[in-house]
Specification:
162 residues; Butyryl-CoA Dehydrogenase, subunit A, domain 3; 55% helix
């Protein structure tokens, strides 16, 4: 595992994944006075909670797989998947933010954290997919991002005579 391969996009997506997973245990909706105190993400969502947990896990997996792989093909393919999953998570949480479930009075701060986390996952994975920066001047890296020696000088030959 080489942490030097990780770029800002992977870190943002993984932080969003951890925040989304934590937000599922935080209060999403406040209950009425004299009733139940609050509903967290696990109790207020039907099947969306499992989907959001999988989206969060895939965002963290993007960081781990990018650091562990020796070639860039697998992390790039996974970042495409996590980008689409992140945007699906944004839609799921937005739909939950638009309506308040039965037995709740208002939205609570865990819901807004989940919305910010899903946006972070989508944007971070999009940045990870788009980041194609070159090595800095004078510093050479291989395809995995590890430092390497300068490439061999290319020898040129004159064109053949007709």
């Amino acid at each position: 595992m080489d942490l030097r391969r990780l770029r800002a996009g992977e870190w943002i997506a993984a932080a969003g994944g951890v925040a989304l997973l934590v937000s599922l245990w935080l209060p999403w909706y406040s209950g009425p006075p004299g009733g139940e105190a609050s509903l967290n993400g696990w109790r207020s969502l039907a099947a969306s909670d499992v989907l959001l947990a999988l989206i969060a896990a895939s965002a963290v997996a993007l960081l781990l797989i990018t650091a562990a792989q020796s070639v860039p093909a697998v992390p790039i393919a996974l970042s495409v998947f996590v980008t689409f999953a992140g945007f699906a998570g944004v839609v799921l949480v937005l739909l939950r933010a638009l309506g308040v479930p039965e037995g709740a009075d208002s939205r609570d701060w865990g819901l807004w954290l989940a919305l910010a986390a899903t946006v972070g996952i989508a944007v971070g994975a999009l940045l990870a997919m788009r980041d194609e920066r070159l090595s800095p001047e004078g510093a050479y890296t291989d395809l995995t991002g590890r430092p390497t020696t300068a490439p061999a000088e290319i020898e040129t030959f004159p064109a053949p005579r007709p």
